[in-house]
Amino acid sequence: MERLCLSDWRGWHGGATRSLPPTQHRLSDFDRPGNSLPGMLRRRLDETGRAVCDILAALDPEARYPLIHASRHGDARHTLAMLEALAAGEPPSPTRFSMSVHNAVLGVHSIAQQHRRPLQALGACGQEFDALLVEATGYLAEGHPSVVIALSEGALPEAYADHVRHPGIPCAVGLRLSRESGSALVATKGSGSGSVDPDPLDVMEWLAGATSVLEGRQRWHLEAP
Amino acid sequence: MNETQQLSLDLKRMIIEALELEDISPDDIEDQAPLFGEGLGLDSIDALELGLALQKRFGIKLDAEAEETRRHFASLAALQSLVEARRVA
Question: What pLDDT, in 10s, does the model give residues A96-105?
Answer without folding.
Answer: 999 999 999 9
